[in-house]
Amino acid sequence: MALGATIYKTELHVSDTDRHYYDSHTLTIARHPSETAERMMVRLIAFSMNAQENLAFTKGISDADEPDIWLKDLTGAIDLWIEVGQPTETRILKACGRAKQVIVYCHNGHASKLWWDGVANKLARAKNLTVVFLSPDPIRVLAAHIKRNMVLHVNIQEQELFISTEDDQVSLVPAVWREPRS
């Protein structure tokens, strides 16, 4: 019998002075058995960086046709498609065709750099794509404090994230490797 997802409840408080967004979210996160604690934490950070009213986690790893996080408008059209990890260029191009904006958050250190070097030229035509690298060290610190019920405070100021758990806090400066093109 296959293992089921582990459910985590998170109270997320976001204070983003860059976007003038201040709100709290009560989230239920299903962590697939194959998902690492670091990847789950990156999903939470990606949610924080893009937080808005209808932003939602999807089935993610469990469904190849959905991103990790998305934002849909009232008609069901996808405004924002967020991937975590190192998706194939085919998957990214498909996402760019389906959504107004696509953001990929990678976090695997040197492996992410090798991945990006390998796919960057193939994605040159994707005008609505952003690629963001998150340093693995602060992610590891946060992942060590994951609990089934947790509270996270994320303060974003001048593109720097200050993330606090009940046990620790870190700062994280995302590196934007690619921005959308007009």
How would you describe the overall organization of this protein?
23% of the residues lie in helices and 38% in strands. The chain has one domain (6-150, 169-178): Restriction endonuclease-like alpha-beta roll fold. The radius of gyration is 16 Å and the shape is globular. Strand 6 (99-106), helix 3 and strand 7 form a beta-alpha-beta unit. By secondary structure, the chain is of the alpha/beta class.
Q: Which structural class best describes the helix and strand composition? A: alpha/beta
* Integer-rounded radius of gyration: 16 Å
Count every helix, treating DSSP H or I runs of 4 or more residues as helices: 4
Query: Which ranges are low-confidence, i.e. pLDDT below 50, for 5 or more consecutive residues?
Result: none
**Portion in strands:** 35-45%
Oligomeric state, counting identical vs distinct chains: single chain
Instruction: List SSEs in N-to-C order.
Output: EEHEEEHEHEHEEEE
In the CATH hierarchy, the architecture is: Roll
- What is the domain tally? 1
Number of strands: 11
Share of helical residues: 10-25%
Largest sheet: 6 strands, mixed
